[in-house]
Write a structure and sequence with these properties.
The protein has 17 helices and 20 strands. By secondary structure, it is of the alpha/beta class. It has 2 domains: 242 residues, Rossmann fold, CATH 3.40.50; 155 residues, 2-enoyl-CoA Hydratase, Chain A, domain 1 (Alpha-Beta Complex). It has a 7-stranded mixed sheet, with helices on both faces. Strands 18-17-14-13-19 form a 5-stranded parallel sheet. Strand 15 and strand 16 form a beta hairpin. Helix 1 packs across helix 2 and helix 6 runs parallel beside helix 15.
Length: 412
């Protein structure tokens, strides 16, 4: 059963947040148990200090152990100073980065067979996958996901069981799920309600976790961190309730496509690996042959943790599938990221690669690195925000990366 508070037209007060958390966590199922809180990193808008404080207030003294696990996926770890702000220390609460680079951090909870993967993916993929995740999850009695729900380029809407896979998962299930999303394409899956093939795969993996799974899903007012809504219950149900609200507040509809987008990237995205969300959320409204400019003067690298993306560059899906023997042994998660930022397109040996939209970086990344990665370059000093805002052919999107833009009449 799912409990919910708030909605699309609501902004919750702190007292309402604390009261909701206290009521949901008051049950005896937590008493004498160990609890792992799986939470987002700093790339997600979320009033995490408030939520953790409310959960701590409800559980401290009742549980045997309380661990906060930062769901990095494969993002860079958060430093001590960052963590002190992101998840402020509280008595009896341990805060850990998901150390995805350390093999000893993982426990295997089972295997999804090739036949089952084929069923879940609609026949797009067919191979066994070892389901590994951070052992902290399985070494606690209860795993409680706490985090926001937004439109998402790989799964449709983020949140829920996605905090386990890929949030604290091993490379095998990350690569498989992300490549499945890439095969479907970001433009096709982003903002899609219901159980997408990737969500189905994630839910199947989560069903193997031996700990009891619960989720406190929140819908955040993008740019402010205030909450529209909260839902609590089994991850599948709490996520679904939150995704319904997110679909109302995190999707902006345009009447016609635009020629150019200036996507202003907030500083919480520190490299293109994360800043690329400023493209994913805008690709659907750009006209054929149009351009998305990622304006991020603070960004100095394509990916701190995945330098191989500079070697393969950014390409459409068909570039990889038409040359699969050349690329199949690379991390599929890296290939997926490449396709998501390059967007829709086609490739064949005769005509080469033809992408629907041009992608330009206006960052502190050197021009030779940008062009070497198959992206356009623009000196950020040459970007005139006022002129762009006055240009009828240009859509300027501040704080890009969370609100999906769609054309009115498109299906979701």
């Amino acid at each position: 059963m799912t409990a919910q508070i708030g909605g699309a037209g609501t902004v919750l007060a702190e007292e309402q947040v604390r009261d909701f958390v206290a009521r949901q966590l008051a049950g005896p199922e937590f008493d004498g148990r160990s609890v792992c809180l799986v939470v987002p990193d700093g790339t997600r808008s979320c009033p995490l200090p408030l939520l953790l404080s409310a959960v701590h207030e409800a559980l401290y003294g009742r549980v045997t152990r309380l661990t906060v696990l930062i769901a990095l996926g494969t993002h860079a770890p958060m430093g001590e100073a960052e963590l002190a702000v992101h998840a402020p220390p509280l008595p009896g609460m341990t805060v850990l980065n998901h150390a995805w680079w350390e093999p000893s951090e993982f426990a295997s909870v089972g295997t999804i067979s090739a036949d089952r993967v084929g069923e879940l993916s609609g026949g797009l993929l067919r191979q066994d996958v070892d389901v590994r995740l951070n052992r902290a999850v399985v070494e606690h009695d209860i795993a409680l996901v706490i985090g926001p729900v937004f439109p998402h380029e790989v799964v449709g809407f983020s949140g829920g069981n996605k905090y386990f896979f890929p949030g604290v998962a091993g490379a095998e299930i990350i690569d498989l799920s992300h490549w499945l999303g890439a095969l479907i394409t970001s433009a096709e899956i982003i903002g899609t309600r219901g159980i997408t093939p990737v969500r189905a795969l994630i839910n199947e993996a989560a069903s193997l976790i031996p700990s009891r799974r619960l989720a406190l899903c929140v819908v955040v007012e993008s740019g402010s961190g205030r909450l529209h809504a909260m839902s609590y219950g089994p991850p599948e149900d709490a996520w679904s309730a939150a995704a319904d609200v997110s679909a109302e507040v995190h999707v902006r509809y345009l009447d016609r496509p635009v020629k150019r987008v200036l996507s202003v990237i907030p500083t919480k995205y520190e490299d293109i690996w994360t800043a690329a969300k400023g493209f994913y959320k805008l690709e659907p409204v750009v006209a054929d042959g149009g351009e998305v400019i990622l304006y991020a003067p603070h960004v100095r690298t394509i990916s701190e943790m995945h330098p191989e993306i500079e070697q393969i560059g950014y390409h459409c899906r068909d570039y990889f599938t038409a040359q699969w023997d050349r690329f199949k042994d690379l991390h599929w998660g890296v290939l997926a990221h490449s396709t998501h930022l390059r967007g829709a397109g086609a490739y064949d040996e005769v005509n080469g690669e033809r992408c629907r939209v041009n992608v330009t970086l206006a960052t502190a990344i050197p021009e030779d690195v940008v062009r070497g990665a198959n992206l356009g370059y623009l000196n950020p000093a040459d970007v005139d925000l006022a002129a762009c805002e006055a240009d009828p052919d240009t859509l300027v999107v501040p704080q890009a990366g969370e609100v999906l833009h769609r054309l009115r009449g498109s299906t979701a």
